[in-house]
Amino acid sequence: MHWGEKAWPQLSFADVAAGKEVGLVPVGAIEQHGPHLPVATDTIIATAMCERASSLTGAPVLPAISLGVSYGHGKHLPGTISLTPALMAGLVEQYVDWAALSGLRRLLFVNAHMGNSASLGVATDRIRLERKDVRVGVVDWYSCDRQVVEAMLADGEDVHANCAETSVMLAIRPDLVDTDRMLEADDEDRTAGLVFRYTAQELSTNGVTGRPSMATAELGEKLWRLAAEGLADRIRRGRVEEPPL
Fold first, then answer.
1. pTM (2 decimals)?
2. DSSP label at 207?
3. CA torsion sign, 151 to 37 to 31 to 55?
4. Beta strand 135-140 with 23-27: parallel, antiparallel or unpaired?
5. pLDDT above 90: percentage of residues in the chain
6. Is the pLDDT of residue 202 over 80?
7. 19, pLDDT greater than 80
8. How far is CA 240 from the centre of its chain?
9. Which residue stretches of 34-80 are H helix?
10. Which of 96, 127, 149, 208 has a CA between 20 and 30 Å from the CA of residue 201?
C-alpha cells in the first residue's frame, strides 16, 4: 500500500486513526555503487524491501527518503548527491511530525545505507525523548534476518556494491545491473587494522568493496524474501508493542 498514491479519504482507515498502524519509510541514498550498479541502488533496495513487507502485512509504504548522508564516498567518483548529517536528522524529525498529523504514530525507518545510521540515531533519539505520542524505530534491511547478515558480510566487513547487494539488485531490477562490468568489479576490503576513517577513493579502486562477480539473481531473491519476512515480523509486533514500563 503506497501512501503517496492514495487520496486523503483512503488514508483515514481505522488502524491509522487509532495510532496502531506501522508506517514504513524507505531510507536510501544517491551515491556511486561501483561500475555495475546505479547510483540509486540503496533507495531502490529499501523501497523494494518495504513493498514486499507491505504485501505481507498491508502496512503503508511512505515516500522514500531518497537522499542520504554519503560523505564517505568523497567527491572523486561521479553520481553522489549527499545531505549533511544535520539536514538528514532534521528531515527525519519533520517526517515524523507531519506523519503524526495524519494519525500515523508508529514509524519504522527501513535503511539501506550505512552512512545514514548516525543521523537516523540522532533524530530518533530526540523524537523518543520529546514525542511521547509517537513510536519510532530504525532497522537496516540487511539486519532483518541472520542469514541475510551472514550473506551481507561474507566478502568483507566494510562492504559496498558487493555480492549480496548486487544479487538483490539482480532480483529486483536486473535491467539496471551491468553484468559485464559486474564480472570484473571485485575489490577487497582494506579497512582491517586501520586507526582512522577514509573516503571510498582511498579504500577502493572502483568504489566496490567485495565480490559482485559472485552475485546471482537466485541469491538475491532469497535475501529479498528473508529480509522482507523479517521486516513483516517487526511490523506485526510493532502494531501492538507498548513500552515495557
1. 0.94
2. S
3. negative
4. unpaired
5. 85
6. yes
7. no
8. 24
9. 41-57
10. 149
